[in-house]
Each structure stands twice: as structure tokens, then as C-alpha cells.
Design goal:
This protein is of the alpha/beta class. It has helices at residues 2-5, 20-29, 40-51, 57-71, 81-87; strands at 11-13, 34-38, 75-78. It contains 5 helices and 3 strands. It has a 3-stranded parallel sheet.
Length: 89
């Protein structure tokens, strides 16, 4: 609320995955756009698991971004941006 009262253009939540509930509450409580920062540790965790063969990279990457969007983020800052764009051309 302080950020909004000081003139913020948006509210940012990071790390995104650990705070999906916070993204949802902010989206329900404020008129400002909610942005989520999908931090490098979240990105690295998915890459490492994919390299070990524990998960399918493209599917988990897209599901991760979808979960952030479904929580209420208007914009997502992510290291997955180029890979996501290539898959969704």
C-alpha cells in the first residue's frame, strides 16, 4: 500500500513461485498491475532438473509461467522469455 501511495506504476513480487499466493492477494486488493519476477534460482532449478532427465523442460517452463499468470500477474520478468517466445511463435 505504501508503494501505491508513493505513486508506483506497478507492484512487483519476487521470487514469483514462492509467492503465488501474494500475487493473488495483491491482484485482488490493488488496481495497479502486478508484476512477478521469476528469479534466476527458479530458472536454474528447472534447467538442472531437465538436464538430469527428471522433467521435460518445455512443458515445465510453460506450466511455471502459466501458474504465475493464473495467480494474477499482469507481467512476468523471466529468464525463460526467449525459450517461451520460440515455442509460441
Amino acid at each position: 500500500a505504501l508503494d501505491e501511495s508513493e505513486g508506483a506504476d506497478f507492484l512487483m513480487v519476487k521470487p514469483a513461485l514462492a509467492y503465488l499466493d501474494v500475487i493473488h492477494v495483491l491482484n485482488e486488493s490493488f488496481e495497479l498491475p502486478i508484476t512477478a519476477y521469476n528469479v534466476s534460482g527458479e530458472y536454474a532449478m528447472i534447467h538442472a532438473a531437465a538436464q538430469k532427465g527428471w522433467l521435460e523442460y518445455d512443458a515445465v517452463m510453460q506450466e511455471t509461467l502459466l501458474s504465475i499468470k493464473r495467480a494474477g500477474a499482469s507481467a512476468i520478468l523471466t529468464y525463460f522469455a526467449k525459450d517461451f517466445a520460440k515455442l509460441n511463435q
